[in-house]
Amino acid sequence: MKRNTDPQPFPSGHLPDGRVFRAVKRAIVSLFNSRSARA
Prior knowledge:
Layout lengths: L16 H22 L1
């Protein structure tokens, strides 16, 4: 069980970890690609 003191952008169980992980990964990848394109 996670502690309520743990910093979280949204309540635990609001979204499956899988979906959140993919969304965050996609955002990071897109940002990294945009930076690489500029370089």
